Amino acid sequence: MAESTSSDILTAVDELHSAGKEKEARDQLKAELAAGRESAEIYWRLARECRGLANRCPDSEEQRKALIYEAFESAKKGLAAEPDNWSCHKWMGILLDLTGRFEGTKKRIENSFLVKEHFTKALDKKPDDAVVLHCLGVWCYEVANLSWLQRNMAAAFFAKPPTSTYEEALEYLLRAEKASPNFYASNLNYIGKAYYQLKKLPEAKEFFQKTINHEADGHDDREAKKEAASLMKKC
After folding, report:
1. Where does the record place its TPR repeats (predicted)?
2. How close are the terminal C-alpha atoms of the chain, in Å?
């Protein structure tokens, strides 16, 4: 039986991740796998580092896509190794949705219930995880924001298509912000968007400004800041 990865290795990987050194963390995790030390703890971390590297790709959509799919395969292997691991459910939900974005609206809608199921299972085990709360908020927002055509498309897949409201989205997003203030420009932006949809324009403008002022500069952050700047002009 292969030797298991020591907690010291996992701690070192987490420290590299916290320092923004996703490539070094990814290399170390791949070395563990090459040595036959496979586990859910290795696989979900590898998914996390690949996702982080994808977010740092400046303009290469193909490179970003390759990293997202590598992350997705790692999340799947982690979940197969340990079906009750909350981190594996968290990253499976994130990556199932991200791969769906590459595959189009139809596929993303088709995946929607399974995506939420993974996030809900993660939240059951870790109710104060800001990322999971954010993801559930985004899920609710996107479902509430489906167009008439998209709703008809959803009705073709499910006897009961997914439903949600902007109020439900806002509740999750604010919980995420409370759990980890200012942790993600996208969370600030989605709070602004939810307030905007609810016609609460002063609150929307406040969070759009917070998004624009956020210091992070990954792909997601740049997209969030761009959208916030555009929407703030309508407040």
Report:
1. 185-218
2. 61
| pLDDT at position 154 | 74
Choose among 94, 184, 179: nearest CA to 139.
Answer: 94
Distance CA 66, CA 141 (A): 27
Task: Tell me how far apart the 2 most distant CA atoms of the chain are, in Å.
Answer: 61
Instruction: Give residue 183's pLDDT band: very low, low, confident or very high (50, 70, 90).
Output: very high
- Where is 56: in which H helix or E strand? helix 40-56
Task: For residue 1, name the pLDDT band (cuts at 50, 70, 90).
Answer: very low
Per-residue pLDDT reduced to its tens digit, 118-153: 999 999 999 999 999 999 999 999 999 988 777 777
Which residues have CB under 8 Å from 60's CB, separation 6+?
Answer: none
Q: Tokens 């870790």 map to which residue?
A: 126
CA distance 199 to 169: 15
For the chain, helix, strand, coil in percent to 5 are 75, 0, 25
At 135, the amino acid letter reads C
